[in-house]
UniProtKB/TrEMBL annotation:
Protein's name in the database: Glycosyltransferase
Entry-linked Pfam families: Glycos_transf_2
Residue ranges occupied by any Glycosyltransferase 2-like domain in the UniProt entry: 1-125
Phosphoprotein keyword on record: no
Transmembrane annotation, as ranges: 216-233
Gene3D superfamilies registered for this protein in UniProt: Spore Coat Polysaccharide Biosynthesis Protein SpsA, Chain A (3.90.550.10)
Amino acid sequence: MPAYNSAETIRDSIASVIYQSYPHWRLYIIDDASSDNTAEIVHSFCEPRLEYIRQERNGGVAKARNVGIKRANGIYIAFLDSDDIWELDKLQQQLVWLENGFDIVCSNYGVFDTDPKKLFTVRTYPEKLDFSTMLRGNCVGNLTGIYNQQRLGKIFQKSCGHEDYIMWLELIRRTDKVCCVQRLLARYRRGGNSLSSNKVKAAIWQWKIYRQHLKIGIFSSLYYWLYYVVTAIRRSLIFRFEK
């Protein structure tokens, strides 16, 4: 769990992990040089399964997550940002699939503004996922993803705007045992800075992922990029309608 000036939201995020029905977890909170009372809130939890790691300099979310990835030594690695929430049976539900041979498991998730109980949409994805499907757009919400690091190894995130997407692409390249649980197992807090200019930046990042990171040919990149753009526009229109 990367955290930067997360005092307003991190308490609920931590609680959603502590009260998981599955008890055998360890939560690494990487404080990315916060200047508010994030640390005080974290330390208010008397929880031995929680490990707080303070970064002296702010390095961004990818570097903060990488500190946690490096530290984690369990069979599985999962992710949760400091403003998002897991459903209380999130890990238990996913472990059923992991223990039945799947290497990567994600799920559908809800989206909210300020009140987690008031969802304005639910993001749903196909149950069966593969590399080609992922190239059309990220089907693994980072707050829902969990993978077997003993079988796939550690993949560290790159600071590029879509750092989690590249990580999941690289992981899915290593296995065909991937599934999306067809249940809402997490809740994503939508930020208030999702301006159209950010949509343009996201589209540029997506193009660079195809061409620079994955080294995909120009015509295939164009096909996947256009699919991504159309999907993003469609979701934006649905969001405005539901609001």
